[in-house]
Design brief:
The complex is a heterodimer of chains A (241) and B (259). Helix content of chain A is 66%, strand content 0%. With 241 residues, chain A is mainly alpha-helical. Chain A has a single domain (8-91, 103-240), classed as Up-down Bundle (3 helical TM bundles of succinate and fumarate reductases). Chain B folds into two domains: 4-105, Beta-grasp domain (Ubiquitin-like (UB roll), Roll), CATH 3.10.20; 122-257, Orthogonal Bundle (Fumarate Reductase Iron-sulfur Protein, Chain B, domain 2). Chain B is 36% helix and 13% strand. Chain B is built from nine helices and seven strands; from the N terminus they run ββαββαβββααααααα. Chain B has helices at 36-49, 91-97, 123-132, 152-162, 169-173, 180-191, 200-213, 224-228, 236-251; strands at residues 4-13, 22-31, 72-73, 76-77, 101-105, 114-116, 119-120. Chain B has a five-stranded mixed beta sheet with strand order 2-1-5-3-4. In chain B, helix 7 (200-213) packs across helix 9 (236-251). The longest helix of chain B has 16 residues, at 236-251. The radius of gyration of chain B is 21 Å and the shape is elongated. The chains are: A mainly alpha (241), B alpha+beta (259). At the A-B interface, helix 1, helix 3 and helix 8 of A face helix 7, helix 8 and helix 9 of B. Bound molecules: FE2/S2 (inorganic) cluster.
């Protein structure tokens, strides 16, 4: 039976949806990192930035909904393509050599779900930790309690504890690996190619993946090295989720 | 004197699609000047003498142009040498690698179903071409050649895509058994030339729809196909297919139908 074909029905359409949502998510990770680098400018600057993010609730929630939508598109298209691809070869090879595939490309189906789980953990301890744990220790880690209106301390205190640092480092490494393939792949999927500039696609993937990995790792390193310490200052701004 | 060696071959034997299939092991006298198919010929000669069924494998031209040979040799589609079909693979290449034991498997993809032993049915690829890999013209006397100028670099690129011999090594090598490189090459060699413009947008829609309908996997940009392709066709053509397809779907005025 013939039926009308929509873009999303096709493998190329699903892959394009994955690429386009990936661009949004990549944009977020870059913005997220550049905002968080304010932690190096001291508690006032960092907390002021956190307050500023919340000044227009409509914008905040708009961005969150857009991100949520991008996540849903990214995950559902990935899942559907994964299922189709896994079923496309019922009888597997006894011997098969991968000539071109790199580690990042091969582990996309692992780094993706790892990132999802990490994201939930990350949100729980830094965003709705206050609501979730109240006065109790976050994740039962002794001495790590939520300070309302003080995201600076919530971040710094977290990285003083290994049960927060270890998943964080793993999450960041998964992000870097995922992006190394994802960014290059995005160009190819959306048909952005020209022999003169094609090498730049890989270069950009390496540069952004490295930047995001090292940038995000700088926080736990700075805290563990004692370069950044919790502040005794008190802050007071209305905390909107 | 030509170098000879005794090789151990583990060859996939399967009576038909319903048979489970298994490897059977043979010893073969290999001469460095033989092609890989000739090595299988010697095994078959012995099997026939013994009154046993010969190993079925596809071949025709044996000079790397017809695209019939289709063997996965020790995990490499068409064997370990780049830009070389199995029929053009000389055993000296195998000797160089020091391989004494070799596994020979057919292309494995649901869309290319098993026929027998090392032979699979590749008509899915033909159906993709039938869906739109042609130019509709009125035949008649040949037009004046200079009427339709084609810049040299464009002609070269079209030729790069047109070197596809349709063997299906790209499908065999792809972790997702995707036919993207094949389909992209068939789309590009027409879409690059002036004669192919009129149907360019409908062609890409129809051929991609057919590719999906055949049950091939999707492209994940791993690049295995490009390395396995005996003609070295670039995955740049896949990017081009994607671009054309996204454009064509966005611009389509009529409903696009599934095949
Ligand atoms: S037999 Fe024709 S290409 Fe190998």
């Amino acid at each position: 039976m013939q039926k009308t074909l929509t873009l999303y029905d096709t493998t190329i359409g699903k892959k394009a949806a994955m690429a386009a949502s990936g661009v949004i998510l990549l944009g977020f990770t870059i913005g997220h990192l550049s905002g968080n680098l304010k932690v190096f400018s001291g508690p006032e600057a960092y907390n002021e930035y956190a307050r500023w993010l919340r000044t227009v609730p409509a914008l905040l929630w708009g961005a969150r909904l857009a991100l949520l939508f991008a996540f849903l598109v990214h995950i559902s298209s990935a899942f559907q393509l994964w299922k189709r691809n896994a079923e496309a070869r019922k009888t597997r090879y006894t011997k098969k050599v991968d000539i071109a595939t790199d580690y990042a490309a091969k582990t996309m189906y692992w780094t993706g779900p790892i990132l999802l789980f990490y994201l939930l953990f990350h949100l729980a301890h830094l965003t709705f930790g206050g609501q979730l744990f109240g006065d109790a220790a976050i994740f039962g880690i002794e001495g790590y309690t939520w300070e309302p209106s003080n995201p600076y301390n919530n971040l710094v205190r977290g990285f003083q504890h290994w049960p927060i640092v270890v998943p964080y480092v793993l999450g960041v490494l998964a992000l870097g690996t995922h992006l190394f393939h994802g960014i290059y792949s995005m160009f190819q999927t959306l048909g952005v190619n020209h022999p003169k500039y094609n090498h730049l696609r890989r270069d950009l993937a390496i540069a952004l993946a490295a930047l995001l990995t090292l940038g995000n790792l700088s926080f736990p390193i700075a805290v563990l090295a004692g370069y950044i310490e919790p502040t005794a200052l008190r802050f007071n701004f209305p905390e909107l989720l | 004197m030509a170098e000879t060696q005794t090789l151990t071959l583990h060859v996939w034997r399967q009576k038909n699609a319903n048979d489970a299939g298994r490897f059977e092991t043979y010893k073969a006298e290999a001469n460095e000047h033989m092609s890989f198919l000739e090595l299988l010929d010697t095994v078959n000669a012995k099997l026939i003498e013994e009154g046993k069924p010969a190993i079925a494998f596809d071949h025709d031209c044996r000079e790397g142009i017809c695209g019939m040979c289709s063997l996965v040799i020790n995990g490499y589609a068409h064997g370990p040498r780049e830009r070389t079909t199995a029929c053009q693979l000389h055993l000296r290449e195998i000797f160089k690698l020091g391989w004494k034991e070799i596994w020979v498997e057919p292309w494995r993809a649901n869309a290319l179903p098993m026929v027998r032993d090392l032979v699979v049915d590749r008509s899915a690829l033909d159906r993709i071409v039938q869906a739109g890999g042609y130019i509709s013209i009125r035949t008649g006397s040949a037009p004046e050649a200079n009427q339709m100028p084609v810049p040299k670099d464009v002609a070269d690129r079209a030729m790069d895509a047109a070197t596809c011999i349709g063997c299906g090594a790209c499908v065999a090598a792809c972790p997702n058994a995707s036919a993207s490189l094949f389909t992209a090459a068939k789309i590009a060699h027409l879409g690059l030339l002036p004669q192919g413009q009129a149907e360019r947008m409908t062609r890409v829609r129809k051929m991609v729809a057919q590719m999906d309908a055949e049950g091939f996997g999707g492209c994940t940009n791993h690049g295995e196909c490009e390395k396995a392709c005996p003609k070295g066709i670039s995955i740049d053509f896949i990017a081009r297919m994607n671009r054309d397809f996204l454009k064509a779907m966005a611009a389509a005025r009529d409903d696009v139908k599934t095949p």
